[in-house]
Recover the amino acids of this structure.
């Protein structure tokens, strides 16, 4: 089976009513979008903010994936993420990390270094600026947005994947997914996605939901990029005159919630690249 | 008065009296809860800090409190206890939504603390949460229930009797009981569980109507049936190509203009004789 077939097969599990439980440690700005995307993808969300229960949540509630997002991180939340991540590692539950805006302060730099030292991350999803920043390169990031030239981005993704032993996903004009041995590129997506606050973090929520259904996180990461990319194209086609980004967001969510397997596969522009 | 007359009466009362509802809830669906309170005549107020939680209840003259533990922290539990003690002292109803009860020992302990230290008027949850409040083992996880609901009455009545309160269990059919009276509500839509926060929102509705009556069996019934009926009407508004995000808009729109007539016309309430329930 090639990657396309695997993507199709994993996506189709959405309709089998398995409801993978996803634990969210995320920011308070886009949290509703993330849990919405989880439900649209056939998952079931659970949240915790209390340090004395967070480390137990994954194990007791039998969470099948954990999403961490740095968007509004503070010291206590870093501790919560670290403890929860360690539990997830111990009970073999995948951790999906979205290091939002890590270039913004020295605390965030400390936070990402600390978390990556203590916790084995299974999927790290970021833009190119964030990926380069973790590797110690200079970046042109401002807040949550990346202004990097994405030509040659592959080498940074591979470098980080090898360094951390994780799946790295770079969202950009073309999304790159690699675990250092395999690489996929998803060339779907409408440019207006960048105008929706939370579209990037929503991709992580979708990936996490599918990570609850497979142990191949390279595959679940690819499905996440595919779903979001194709959904934005379906949303674009539904746009009428005078409709703006708010309506576009509604249409993206609608598309994620209703997309049939065939619609995904018909539109999916997926390339599998051999790595030597 | 028949059940439906009681329900319509409470809808009218809330619009006339504008009950003040104090929310100590999760931050994910907070906006939905407070919005829908306003749609039905209620006025929301919120507090998060133990330092003023009790004061707000008394000074602001709160008519009902809604506790939701979806993203609860130890600090928020302390705020709930402070506010709840004042409410218990002043005989103000507390509606508890024990989201994901049983998911961690912390949540179980927090719920036990509230049920033992406070007078809770209505517990609203799915069957898994109802069982968790009773200390019964459940198979479900997180916010969703995958329990078999065929014997739901048994657990609902047991919990109502144990804490001398009203229990509103939401499910495929909703079951409401105060320990002696039991009804099943057969309104609703299979789309409602696909929208986050519809369960929490029922808690807000129950809170609003509990602010204008002392018979919480009926305020619980009113809150539950309104969401079921709004779900049915929203179903009829969905057009081709629309998904669950648009469905949520239809649902909120419907709630904001729901008429007494629509409720009267669609209400499907079945009385269950308490002696028929296998224990």
């Amino acid at each position: 089976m090639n990657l396309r077939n695997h993507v199709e097969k994993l996506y189709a599990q959405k309709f089998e009513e398995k409801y993978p439980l996803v634990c969210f440690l995320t920011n308070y700005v886009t949290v509703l979008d993330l849990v919405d995307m989880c439900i649209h993808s056939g998952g079931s969300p659970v949240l915790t903010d209390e340090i004395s229960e967070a480390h137990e949540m994954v194990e007791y509630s039998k969470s099948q994936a954990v999403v961490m997002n740095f968007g509004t991180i503070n010291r206590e939340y870093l501790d919560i993420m670290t403890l929860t991540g360690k539990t997830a590692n111990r009970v073999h539950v995948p951790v999906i990390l979205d290091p939002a805006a890590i270039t913004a302060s020295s605390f965030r730099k400390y936070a990402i270094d600390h978390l990556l030292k203590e916790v084995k991350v299974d999927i790290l999803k970021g833009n190119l600026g964030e990926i380069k920043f973790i590797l110690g390169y200079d970046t042109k990031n401002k807040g949550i947005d990346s202004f990097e030239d994405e030509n040659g981005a592959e080498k940074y993704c591979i470098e980080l994947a090898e360094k951390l032993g994780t799946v790295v996903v770079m969202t950009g004009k073309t999304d790159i997914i690699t675990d250092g041995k395999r690489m996929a590129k998803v060339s779907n997506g409408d440019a207006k996605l960048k105008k929706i606050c939370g579209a990037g973090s929503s991709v992580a929520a979708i990936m996490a939901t599918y990570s609850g259904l497979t142990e191949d996180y390279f595959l679940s990461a690819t499905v996440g990029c595919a779903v979001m990319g194709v959904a934005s194209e379906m949303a674009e086609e539904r746009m009428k005159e005078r409709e703006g980004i708010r309506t576009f967001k509604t249409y993206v969510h609608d598309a994620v919630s209703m997309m049939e397997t065939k619609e995904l596969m018909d539109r999916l522009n997926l390339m599998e690249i051999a790595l030597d | 008065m028949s059940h439906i007359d009681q329900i319509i009466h409470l809808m009218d009362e809330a619009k006339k009296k504008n009950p003040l509802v104090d929310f100590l809830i999760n931050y994910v669906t907070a906006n939905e809860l407070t919005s829908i309170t306003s749609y039905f005549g209620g006025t929301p107020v919120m507090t998060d800090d133990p330092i003023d939680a009790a004061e707000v209840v008394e000074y602001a003259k709160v008519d009902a409190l809604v506790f939701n533990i979806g993203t609860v922290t130890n600090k928020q539990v302390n705020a709930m206890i402070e506010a709840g003690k004042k409410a218990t002292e002043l005989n103000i109803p507390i509606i508890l939504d024990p989201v994901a009860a049983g998911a961690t020992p912390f949540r179980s302990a927090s719920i036990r603390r509230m049920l033992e230290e406070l007078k809770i008027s209505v517990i609203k949850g799915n069957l898994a949460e109802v069982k968790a409040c009773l200390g019964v083992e459940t198979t479900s996880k997180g916010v969703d229930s995958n329990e078999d609901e065929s014997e739901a009455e048994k657990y609902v009545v047991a919990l109502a009797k144990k804490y001398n309160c009203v229990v509103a269990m939401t499910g495929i059919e909703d079951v409401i009981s105060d320990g002696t009276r039991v009804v099943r509500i057969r309104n609703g839509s299979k789309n409602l569980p696909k929208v986050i926060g519809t369960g929490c929102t029922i808690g807000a509705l129950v809170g609003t109507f509990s602010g204008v009556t002392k018979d919480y069996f009926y305020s619980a019934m009113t809150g539950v049936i309104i969401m079921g009926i709004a779900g049915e009407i929203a179903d009829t508004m969905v057009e081709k190509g629309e998904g669950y995000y648009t469905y949520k808009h239809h649902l909120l729109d419907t709630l904001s203009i729901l008429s007494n007539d629509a409720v009267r016309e669609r209400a499907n309430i079945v009385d269950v004789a308490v002696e028929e329930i296998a224990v």
